[in-house]
């Protein structure tokens, strides 16, 4: 007599029930001993429990309510432990949390969470046995159900054999989730259509015209590449639109992004095309993006093509031409109590960054400190200020001891790097408004600056807001007057140049069309920098 297996909630497991029914129908054709063994196995509580667990885990990709927010909780755990370790002797609470996070049960839960988030639970076919007859070609049949989601694999023609092979498997795509298709597999048939002699475009046409179930006949590759996800996150320094890229292997598989987006690079196996997802998005399917090497080649090619006409030379005396902005590896930088990141405001002359800096310092003079200010009554040269000979100043500038320097009314001046470090070491927030060229000296792992780009609005709004506020021109040091239209245009042009060459280094930007609103945003950004973990160059965190 045949029994049926029930799930933990009392419902029948449809897959197990169907198998048992099939066995019952085959009783007269099968060995009674083998049949009994299979029935006992299918009816066992252990197997039923495993099937239930698998079914629930498989629903993760189908139910947004239980989709994992991240796949690296263990890595974050280790970072938290590193932050807590030096404080255990100071705070009993830190000590308690430090020991709690090291308990085996908690760490096991996080390891299991990451394994599910990274889909390490999917089955993998065993490798082809070594003793297989060399003359006998192993064939595998794979069926995938076509839906609105791409299959998640690209194909190419093998340069040596001319055969169609699987070029890449997209992480999290249908092919990847099946665990049955691998890079290097040779495609023999698609829906019973022989693909010998066909091009990848021909095969794609077959797939596009197919409906329902798609059946692949494949010859397995000799070896299977590891499909585990990498942990690398990068900040994109350029915009990318795959639909407008004539060289991408498959436009549908591309991932578009904008400058400033944080991308999770899940695979760098291909020299030219990485696989990535946008950080924070719930989708598990990765998309193709140009690799760093490919994008650098493109940028160099564009510069070479434009230089003969001079089009590429956009007033770049202040720009390092050897610097090619593509991606920068980043990690979360967690706030450290008592150690504040310097706030750096950059922007075009006259945009208002100095006024915003002044207001921020005036808001809390004990917390926010400026490295440069006018001499106050009662201050003595040599105590509050240090005056040196011009020769000494020039020597220190040559020795890169100044973050920025300049000349005013015949006198050299500058902001010393040591003065910034002393403010940080005093548990204060150093507020700087340097020339944007100073970013080359400021953006270091030692200072870890939080950079805000202060930008002007469009011309009409810029003119209207400055006229209403009776703003005085910063272009004329000898006369107090309003801005001219030419100065407004120069401000916008300078801002565009700064944004093109240095904008990707900025953590935030503020459009200063209303000074009060711009200041409120600056205060919010300053608080965010002190209280929230933020993306920063990975070298700063390590």
UniProtKB/TrEMBL annotation:
<feature type="domain" description="SH3">
    <location>
        <begin position="229"/>
        <end position="299"/>
    </location>
</feature>
<keyword id="KW-0965">Cell junction</keyword>
<dbReference type="Pfam" id="PF00595">
    <property type="entry name" value="PDZ"/>
</dbReference>
<dbReference type="InterPro" id="IPR001478">
    <property type="entry name" value="PDZ"/>
</dbReference>
<dbReference type="GO" id="GO:0016020">
    <property type="term" value="C:membrane"/>
</dbReference>
<dbReference type="InterPro" id="IPR001452">
    <property type="entry name" value="SH3_domain"/>
</dbReference>
<keyword id="KW-0472">Membrane</keyword>
<dbReference type="Pfam" id="PF02828">
    <property type="entry name" value="L27"/>
</dbReference>
<comment type="similarity">
    <text>Belongs to the MAGUK family.</text>
</comment>
<feature type="domain" description="Guanylate kinase-like">
    <location>
        <begin position="340"/>
        <end position="527"/>
    </location>
</feature>
<dbReference type="Pfam" id="PF00625">
    <property type="entry name" value="Guanylate_kin"/>
</dbReference>
<keyword id="KW-0677">Repeat</keyword>
<dbReference type="InterPro" id="IPR020590">
    <property type="entry name" value="Guanylate_kinase_CS"/>
</dbReference>
<dbReference type="InterPro" id="IPR008145">
    <property type="entry name" value="GK/Ca_channel_bsu"/>
</dbReference>
<dbReference type="InterPro" id="IPR027417">
    <property type="entry name" value="P-loop_NTPase"/>
</dbReference>
<dbReference type="InterPro" id="IPR036028">
    <property type="entry name" value="SH3-like_dom_sf"/>
</dbReference>
<feature type="domain" description="L27">
    <location>
        <begin position="12"/>
        <end position="65"/>
    </location>
</feature>
<dbReference type="GO" id="GO:0070161">
    <property type="term" value="C:anchoring junction"/>
</dbReference>
<dbReference type="InterPro" id="IPR008144">
    <property type="entry name" value="Guanylate_kin-like_dom"/>
</dbReference>
<dbReference type="InterPro" id="IPR036892">
    <property type="entry name" value="L27_dom_sf"/>
</dbReference>
<dbReference type="InterPro" id="IPR050716">
    <property type="entry name" value="MAGUK"/>
</dbReference>
<dbReference type="InterPro" id="IPR014775">
    <property type="entry name" value="L27_C"/>
</dbReference>
<feature type="domain" description="L27">
    <location>
        <begin position="70"/>
        <end position="124"/>
    </location>
</feature>
<feature type="domain" description="PDZ">
    <location>
        <begin position="141"/>
        <end position="222"/>
    </location>
</feature>
<dbReference type="InterPro" id="IPR036034">
    <property type="entry name" value="PDZ_sf"/>
</dbReference>
<keyword id="KW-0728">SH3 domain</keyword>
<dbReference type="InterPro" id="IPR004172">
    <property type="entry name" value="L27_dom"/>
</dbReference>
<protein>
    <recommendedName>
        <fullName>MAGUK p55 subfamily member 7</fullName>
    </recommendedName>
</protein>
<dbReference type="Pfam" id="PF07653">
    <property type="entry name" value="SH3_2"/>
</dbReference>
